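Entry 14. Ran structure prediction on the chain below.
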Amino acid sequence: MTRVFSDLRPAGMSLDDAMRLVARGERAGLRAIYDLEAPAMIGVAMRILRRRDLAEEAVHDCIVQVWRKAASFDSARGQARAWLYTVLRNRALNILRGERSGSSAGEETLLTLESEGETPEACVARLSDAKALRRCLERLEPARRSMIVLAYAQGLTHGELAGKLGLPLGTVKSTIRRSLSALKECMA
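Output, structure tokens:
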């Protein structure tokens, strides 16, 4: 039996109603938006990004953006669904740009770093003025340390790192987040 997507709406709540709840800071509205639209949002993001992990990342980022910016939604200017999918599309395109630049620009950056002898390890070694940071960075596993240095000292985005390292974007983000947490604890 095929269910009509609108049958899934919690207690008859429309997307516009859910958006108003989110604008007031009510999490129930955000949950309703997710329940109502997440499957379709994944589909839209998949058509743009062609990878499930990136599509899920785009949907997650979109939901976070909705939480932060719902108060800026104006129902007089358009429908909530159009606003929601515009946010999703923009986020997916940003991820796509990051992936594309990560596959070419990231490789060029790495070649430049290696040809100049500026590997992530060499960059850590130059931190003589910041001995505590250097000590904490050296405590990280080499792969995690390299990821942090490439992201912050060389300015690579999460998308560029994911493309360069051949890892899912979510893995890169969570590894960097955990590594930064470890550095913060070490520096404290």
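The chain has two domains: 1-99, 117-188. Will compare against last week's run tomorrow.
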